[in-house]
Amino acid sequence: MTITLRAGTRLGAAVIAFAALASACATKKQAAPSLTLKTTTTPAGTTATATAGPGKKEGIKKFADLVGKTKADEGLFPTYKVDGKYYFEIPDSLLSREMLVVTRFVKTPAGLKSFGQQYGGEEVNNQVWKWERHDKQIFVRVPSYSVRADSTSDMYQSVKNSNLDAVLASFDIKAYNKDTTGVLVDVTDMYNGDLAAISLPDNIKKLYKVSAIDAGRSYIDTIKSFPINVEVRTLKTFRASESPTDNTNGALTFELNSSMLLLPKTPMKARLMDPRVGYFGQSQTDYGTGAQRSEVTSYIHRWRLEPKDEAAYARGELVEPKKQIVYYIDPATPKKWVPYLIAGINDWNKAFEAAGFKNAIVGKVAPTAKEDPEFSPEDARYSVVRYFASDVQNAYGPHISDPRTGEILESHVGWYHNVMSLLRNWYFIQTAAINPNVRMAQFTDQQMGELIRFVSSHEIGHTLGLPHNFGSSYAYKVDSLRSKAFTDKHGTAPSIMDYARFNYIAQPGDGVTHLYPQIGEYDLWAIKWGYSYIPGGKTPKQEKELLDAWTKERAGNPLYYFGRQGTSIDPRLQNEDLGDNAMKASTYGIANLKRILPNIEKWTFQKGEDFDDVQTLYNEVIGQYNRYIGHVTMNIGGMNENFKTYDQKGPVYGFVNKSLQHDAVEFLNQQVFKTPTWLINTPELSKFDNGVVIGRIKSVQVNTLNNVLNPSRMARMFDNEAKSGANAYTVTNLLTDLRPGIFPAAKPDQFQRNLQRGYVDALKRFLTDDASQSFPGATSTQLSSMGLTPINIALSDLRPMVRAELAKISASLPKGGDALVKAHYDDLRLRIKETLNPTRPVVNIAPGTPGRLSETDQTEVNY
Known about the structure:
The protein is α+β, with helices and mostly antiparallel strands. It has 3 domains: 37-268, no CATH class; 305-419, no CATH class; 436-722 and 737-748, no CATH class. It has 24 helices and 28 strands. Strands 3, 4, 5, 6, 7, 8, 10, 11, 12, 13, 14 and 15 form a 12-stranded mixed sheet that branches. Strands 19-18-20-24-21 form a 5-stranded mixed sheet, with helices on one face. Strands 9-16-17 form a 3-stranded mixed sheet. A hairpin with a 6-residue loop joins strand 22 and strand 23 (408-410). The radius of gyration is 31 Å and the shape is globular. One of its GO terms (molecular function) is metallopeptidase activity. InterPro entries: DUF5117, DUF5118, EcxA_zinc-bd, MetalloPept_cat_dom_sf, Zn_MMP-like_bac.
């Protein structure tokens, strides 16, 4: 679910290819000598660490003299351990073959705080290696895939000339094997040292002030070879002045596993990306397309699925793939959750049937040591759902892909134990008004299991290549989500990849019981588009013609709409929202919050416990209320984004309807700026609140106001007025509509007085802050794509409009009232006066000090 964005999380329009790796079992310790390293830069601009060069030269020995009777661990590279040294026997047939090297933590220190790299199983780094021979040496080189040209292209040699592979490490050849078809190299120093690609990441080194690796407290644990991979497990200790738990150690110790996986000799045929269908992917500049310019090509990430029976597949029959997608459940997972995690994996078979495959994916219990002594969760041949003993409220679904084609090779889903806390709190806050089954302090295992199944499906979707589809939930009418028949069939959104959580719209009496998302119409379509097998040896461009036809058939149907993550421009593309009208949906949501809040203590009663849970759930009510407000606010100054091609009619970008923007401001006036007194539930607050509720409500109101008056929002509104004239919702309309909500005719209470001061202060910033809203290093197109539309405030119409608005407010303020209200209005007038006519610095000549100047500070009223 990647509830806290990470993959699933982890974004904008940028494409992310996530993590994976491998490991093996343990034998004896081996102390590591120190390794001298230097830094080099690859053509892609990434940093790699290389050996400084061969040490003392030794002659090439006879294979038998060096290895003796040591038995090889046969596999991709036969490996040997002789007198504490580790050797690879590299066959000539594997020289220059590309291999993906993925390094993961096996075990980490307690208390490690490094976002995304904290627990055993999480990825540290991945890199492609090629082993090459030059004279009496073997080099590890790191190819770059950022620039390419087909080998048949006239540009191929030119691209090769400017895309040289970096040398990561070098080794002297120690011996030739018996038939001289391979060489022996000593890899002890490389794996035992601090080579960046297979060692501790820089962010952790900086965080804990790591100075160097400590060779005396580090060793290679095991090196194991398998048919397509080599697994190296190491223990590395680093000298560090900071520690997550105990600085007296002066060190941090980690267990790591580096997996070197042979990439397919025949790469999978790539599939070109399409912004109208959501997939993670990768991009490169391609000079071999025949275009009259350099061209960026992008490929989606997907597993290689090919039918066992092509003839049956061509007849439209469901066919099993040659190789099934298999996920194993981490043996460390609590047994009661395993069936639900597996069910979430297997649910995707429904979607793969839309692509013509049956039994395409399966979840399995990891084999025991007795069943398969060679199985390891870190082995790159296996995809695993890893379970972390963590208080993090999250889960994420990464994947590792072939950088040449986008083929997904394996995945390690990260599952944090405390995701259950988040699920419990959100499910309660969003559904307890209509769902008596959640009115308890702790859910039953079956209830929690079903929520785990839902999250499992979401995360597995990421590992299949699918990003979040934040536009999906907009497809369903708000009132449809109050229908039991509709929700029983469709859930809450057409895609489980949206952040469409639980049904907060349904009201008591509606009878709705299916309250969360499921794999839906969009998911079936996305899998069909990405995974359908297209026979006939077509090129990716030829396949694109068929795929384009499929996409155009579904264009305009909201069920198949993909809305990207990473932008605040389109109000349809929001997380945690439901339905096609945020104002209507949020009104229903707030009505349910008003039902839940007074009952929190009663519904979660725990004998002998304090009121921490009451406080937590009250905070969740505030958080949910804020989400509803945010959903509505994005309509103001919003634009709808519908990616299209030349042969599709209609605009790609269009402004949100004027009446909808007006409705959004009216919602805020009624539900936010009119004091939400329902949040001041004295019986509940008396159990934990120590006098801060005024500040909390003030924060909600003022933060909302500042969000509405966002400069980028104003920039789009000015643009709309220039393009649409009278059909636009303008900045003038906004200020006019806000005024009665901020300054009602009735006597203002203390919350409204706070809000009025906040409004004047927000307007003041337009006159006093920097003259432009800009973001160095980014183009206006890039910023606008994310919703950060640039504006030069000093040169825009905004400042004169703000001055006029402040003058209107000052002139309309009442003269009378009780002492407190009168003081408030007098203060507002003074604030406005100082904003419109700031006190000029007065230059004083200090007595007896000719030429010495001082300035009096500008008067400023603080609150």
